[in-house]
Structure formats: C-alpha cells, structure tokens
Amino acid sequence: MKFRCERDALAEALAATGRAATGRTGSLPVLSGVRLELKGDRLVITGTDLDLTIQLEISVGGEVDGATVLPAKLASDIVRALGAGKVEVETTDDNVSISAGRSQFSLRPLSVDDYPRLPAPAATAVTLPAAAFGEALRQVVRAASTDEARPILTGVLLAAEGDGLRLVATDSYRLAVRDLRGTSVLATDQKVLVPSRALNELSRLLGGATELTLRLGERDATFEIGSTRLTTRLIEGEFPNYRQLIPASYPNKLTVSKDALLEAIRRVRILAKDATPVRLELGTDHVRLSAITQDVGNASDDIDATLEGSEITVAFNPDYLSSGVDAATSEDVTLETLDSLKAAVVREVGNPDFLYLLMPVRVP
C-alpha cells in the first residue's frame, strides 16, 4: 500500500477512528490499532473495540492498493507531529513508513488478518436533522452515568413519544429529558438504549453536518454522517421508570437569567470544597447563592430573579446544578421546586421540550 495525503486530513481521521480502538485488548491485541484500506484514491480507516466502531473514508493520492493495521495512538501522534503539507505512507510486509519533508518514521504493523470482520449495518434507514439531534445529545448525554458497574445507567434511552422522539438519561442523581417533536425514527412504543460513550463520539463527528442517517438493527445502531459511520452495540436491559420521578406540578417557580446564574454558581463554588453544596435562597425578586466550607470560609452572591410561590432555601451539588443550567438554550431558565428535600426541575423559558431534574442536598 502506498498513498499521499494532506497531514491535517489524515491526522483528523486517525484521531477520530482511534477513539474507538481500545487499550484493553485482552486476547485481541489488534484492537489497539486502526485498519487502513486503500482502493484507488479512497482510503477507509476503521477503529473498533467490538462495542463501538468508527469508520470513515477520505480522499488521498493512491499509488498502490492494500491494507494494514497501525497502532492507533502511535500513528495518530506521529502524523500530528509532522510538518504541514503532504504525508506519504508506504507499507511492506513487516514495516510501515510514514514521512513528510525530512521527517521519517518506521512502524511495525499489527496483523491485518487478525482484524475482525465487521457486520454490515441494517438496510432500513431514517434521516434526522443533524443540528437538532446534536443539540438534544448535548443536553441529555451529560446526565448519563459513567459507572460501568451500572451499565443500564450508562445509556441514553431513545423512545417513540407521541409524534416524535424522546431522549432520556439519568445517573440516579439527576435526569435529563429532551423531546424532538416531528422526528419519527422508531415504531410506536419502540425504545432502544444507546451507550452514552457512543453518543458522545457521535456529537464530535456531527460538526456542521445537516443530515444524519440512523440504521437500527436488532442489537446495534449505526449513525452515518457523510462518509463517516459510527456503529455501537445497544445496551440490553430495562431503563428505570423515570416518569414517576417527575412531579405533575410545582408550587414554586424561580425565573432567572441563565448566564447570570451560571456566573454566580461559578463564583460561589470556589468556596464549595469537597462536595460542599451550594445553597439557593429563593426570594420574590432575587436569589442568593452561598457556600460555606468549615475552616475555609464562605461566599455569597445575589442576582435578580422572579419567584412565583413561597420563599424557600434549597441546596444542590454545584456541578449538577451548573450542568443542568448550562444545557438550556434559552436566555432565561426556570427552577421549579416543591420543597427543600424533593426533586427540582430546570427548564428553558419558552420551550417545553427539555427538562433537567436534580435531587437537592440536605443541609443544616
């Protein structure tokens, strides 16, 4: 195999596919590599850990067709370190040469014969608006758990809801729900659980794409953006009944500027050490945020707000609170509460399609 390619295009492709390669190879060391296959002027690069696969195609100056498997991180680091301009890659049976200008590297490839054959994606496809789906992912994926001991909670639920699609994620401390009205990609009452890791990678790949194609199989989901394809195994199991966590109504509703609230949280959390909660004292025309850390000090910040309901004090984990407020796309947000011990909800003003529920922290 031999080809030439612009450094930036090759570096970006190796980095993207390399994120699907695994460092925990077990009995398959070849999975630590990315597979390069050249046919004419089209180079297909694939990375997989068998749960997540990222494959993309780029245009190169091809000279000799062939295939090889390169150590993912090493190849990415080498190409990224080269000078700007054309990079030449040439392989023999036991060597891969990567060069640009006066720089030259030589690598031992991994066994191309040991690289797993990947199944073809499902034939049935539906098209989604990439920008809207990407925004929904940004709002919801942040609430998924990263604890592999609870695999169900590491997924994002995609469920048919009315005339559209609903995305839901929770780590048991917070819950994010986003509806995409008019986006019908599932059959009535159908639902699938997609790993949040895969959806985080999908968010990176979306970029400025306008359309996204989804192919759902029995045990996997494939997302296609142009010449890039991401395939992930679905999570098997029953997602928690999240609906019972959301109260039908709230007696107290605080309306406040999103940016002002985020800035206030940022300031007072400087003193919120070792998971110290941030208190919110809800007043009729303001909200006071404060943090008290024993033997360190305290901080408080007042910002304008409007309250409908009773004046109460409620406390939250500052990371969870700021994450929910940051997920909103509106200029103003509402914080709806029942009392200081029951779940509260952050919503966008003027948009009923997103909610972020979080549990308060008990404070003296």
Oligomerization = single chain
- Quick one: CATH superfamily of the largest domain? DNA Polymerase III, subunit A, domain 2
CATH topology-level fold name of the largest domain: DNA Polymerase III, Chain A, domain 2
Give the termini distance in whole angstroms: 69 Å
CATH architecture of the largest domain: Roll
What's the tally of helices? 6
CATH class of the largest domain: Alpha Beta
Report Rg.
24 Å
* Strand adjacency order, main sheet: 14-11-12-13-25-24-23-18-21-20-19-22
Mean of residue pLDDT?
93
Task: Give an overview in words.
The protein is α+β, with helices and mostly antiparallel strands and 364 residues long. Helix content is 18%, strand content 43%. It contains six helices and 25 strands. It has helices at residues 7-18, 72-81, 130-140, 196-206, 258-268, 318-327; strands at residues 2-6, 33-39, 42-48, 52-59, 61-64, 66-71, 86-91, 96-100, 103-107, 126-129, 155-161, 164-170, 174-180, 191-195, 211-216, 220-225, 228-233, 252-257, 278-282, 286-293, 297-308, 313-316, 332-337, 344-348, 351-358. The strands form three sheets. A twelve-stranded antiparallel β-sheet has the order 14-11-12-13-25-24-23-18-21-20-19-22. An eight-stranded antiparallel β-sheet has the order 6-2-3-4-17-16-15-10. Strands 5-1-7-8-9 form a five-stranded antiparallel β-sheet.
Short description:
18% of the residues lie in helices and 43% in strands. The chain is built from six helices and 25 strands.
